[in-house]
Automatic annotation (TrEMBL):
Protein known as: ROK family transcriptional regulator
Family of this protein: Belongs to the ROK (NagC/XylR) family.
Pfam family of the protein (one): ROK
Chain residue ranges for the region called Disordered: 1-35
Source domain of life: Bacteria
Biased composition (Basic and acidic residues): 25-35
InterPro entries listed in its UniProt record: ATPase_NBD, ROK, ROK_cs, WH-like_DNA-bd_sf, WH_DNA-bd_sf
Transmembrane residue ranges: none
Length: 388
């Protein structure tokens, strides 16, 4: 009898948005692994549904009350969870002590590098409240100038944090490696920019780097309650997409899933603009905010509808391939308003099957212009607390 082949390696999406591949040989499970999973499970239940009693946590998680008591005790001792008083009596039985994530004392530092004119950062509590916000103008020059500006912003934010900081999340344009290197970002001229290393030397908190569109997609899922399959399009200095399938980021074998900005959507030499990458007709050359503003300044009244149509041309095959039902657009509302959305929707309807048309929901990102900033904070919660 021929033995069955071993199971194929499966991709693992890391907390910082990177992807690794599990080894072919099955790894032995260790008690520490189960402990870590249970810890993340408890923190996730509390973050989304808390405060809850230990008994309720045990019931929802399927863990024993003894295990739950030990876990909650450890989380309280670590300062991540606090007791909030006895729950109201309902029915029989002794009321339990309510516990919750310490939302007011715990903070994340979030930085958004995708905006057209500045780097923006904030210190945000787990209540979602901003304690402080700073920005610095986009620096002139190469990645060394960018590094100095990003480090300055991160240090200012860290110094101003009013409580414990879980970590620093940075959402950046470009393809980001698992080690936090921006491998390439054509629209800002970066190649091999080791952002992780630069920030790790500058601030005394864990640092996590992610692509801007991926971060925004994680934020929409984690913070805004989007639970289905999702494609989030980030429009700023460039154009990119974050794709979630069953709540997990689609990263791709070279960390480049969602890099739709350099997909060609116009090939007529007479009307295809030149992109920052050197080619003609790339989506970014039609839809990025600098491109739209230039055409508006030149008196092109149809530029906003044109941008919506070009984006629809690029997205229709993705929707057809993945049967996605939710399209979220993150970008300036003054440019990406009703005319843009109307043209995008009509283009998608023209280019997809009728069965798909009925399920496509196109909407603006929940956090508007702060979608990427909030997403940068969300990647810290995923990386440091295991919350998904």
């Amino acid at each position: 009898m021929t033995p069955s082949p071993p199971p194929a390696s499966s991709p693992i999406v890391e907390a910082n948005g990177s992807q690794t591949v599990a080894p072919d040989a099955p790894r032995k499970s260790h008690p520490a692994d189960a402990r870590s999973r249970n810890r993340s499970l408890v923190l996730g239940l509390l973050f989304h549904d808390g405060p809850l009693s230990r008994a309720e946590l045990a019931r929802r998680s399927g863990l024993t009350r003894v295990t739950m008591s030990d876990l909650v005790g450890e989380l309280v001792d670590s300062g991540l969870v606090i007791e909030q008083g006895m729950q109201s009596r309902s029915g029989r039985g002794k009321p339990g002590m309510l516990v919750d994530v310490d939302r007011s004392a715990l903070h994340v530092i979030a930085i958004d590098l995708s905006r057209p004119q500045s780097y923006v950062g904030a210190v945000i509590s787990l209540l979602g409240e901003e304690a402080v916000r700073h920005s610095v103008p986009w620096p002139e020059g190469d990645s060394a100038s960018a590094e100095a500006a990003i480090v300055e912003l991160a240090q200012r934010l860290q110094a101003a944090a009013p409580g414990r900081v879980l970590g620093l999340g940075v959402a950046t344009p470009g393809i980001v490696s698992p080690s936090g290197v921006v491998e390439t970002a054509p629209n800002v001229g970066w190649t091999g920019f080791n952002m992780q290393s630069a920030l790790a030397r500058a601030v005394p908190v864990p640092v996590h780097i992610a692509n801007d569109a991926n971060a925004a997609a994680v934020g929409e899922h984690l913070l805004a309650g989007s639970r289905g399959d999702l494609l989030l399009v980030k429009i700023g200095r460039g154009v990119g997409a974050g794709i979630l399938v069953r709540g997990e980021l689609v990263i791709g074998s070279h960390m480049a899933a969602g890099e739709i900005g350099h997909v060609t959507v116009g090939t007529d030499p007479g009307d295809a603009p030149t992109c920052a990458c050197g080619r003609r007709g790339c989506l970014e050359a039609w839809v990025s905010i600098p491109a739209v503003r230039r055409r508006l300044a030149d008196g092109d009244a149809g530029v906003v509808r044109d941008a919506g149509e070009r984006l629809g041309i690029a997205l229709a095959p993705i929707i057809g391939a993945l049967n996605l039902e939710e399209i979220v657009v993150a970008g300036p509302e003054d440019l990406l308003g009703p005319d843009f959305r109307e043209t995008l929707v009509s283009t998608l309807q023209e280019r997809t099957l009728p069965t798909q048309r009925r399920t496509i929901d196109v909407r603006r990102a929940t956090y508007g212009d702060d979608a990427v900033l909030r997403g940068a904070g969300a990647i810290v919660l995923t990386a440091e607390l295991g919350i998904r």
